[in-house]
């Protein structure tokens, strides 16, 4: 009999300053070990953030945006909006800028049949999460207030993309 699929949590820690949007976690998300059965994804992400020096009072919001199977694990994705008092790189030296132009450089994910799951890259997951934050800015007053004006300004260029990402017809191999 097969074992159960463990749940892993990934947190894309992002921040905004007057210069733009930043991936606080550097080049990738932070990922937890398997979530214990007496815990939960949100709490395990809080522990992971603490392990990377981010206290909960530095977090404006934590919002789960998606999930996907990845090998033997189920990954639950969170966007973590981290507060920035001034320039992000003044606090997080490893932070990397996030630009919409990079989406064009990475390209589209592989097409898939209508009854198959998509296989997005980690970058596509991050872009989806940012677009999800933009949706929250427009439709969720509590989260919009938590993010503030810089987020509204920097997310403005991010338009809906899911339909366009899969506009090419799938051709079976």
Folded structure, characterized:
With 173 residues, the chain is of the alpha+beta class. The chain has one domain: Nucleoside Triphosphate Pyrophosphohydrolase (Alpha-Beta Complex). Helices cover 33% and strands 24% of the residues. The chain contains 7 helices and 6 strands; from the N terminus they run βββαββαβααααα. The chain has helices at residues 41-51, 88-91, 101-106, 122-139, 141-147, 149-155, 162-165; strands at residues 7-17, 20-23, 30-31, 59-70, 73-82, 96-98. Strands 1, 2, 3, 4, 5 and 6 form a 6-stranded mixed beta sheet that branches. The two termini are 31 Å apart.
Order of helices and strands: EEEHEEHEHHHHH
Do you know the CATH topology? Nucleoside Triphosphate Pyrophosphohydrolase
Count of beta strands: 6
Radius of gyration: 17 Å
Instruction: Give the strand content.
Output: 15-25%
- How many DSSP H or I helices? 7
CATH class: Alpha Beta
Which segments are poorly predicted (pLDDT under 50) over 5 or more consecutive residues? none
Distance between the termini: 31 Å
Shape: globular
Percent of residues in helices comes to 25-40%
Q: Helices and strands: which structural class?
A: alpha+beta
Q: So, CATH architecture? A: Alpha-Beta Complex
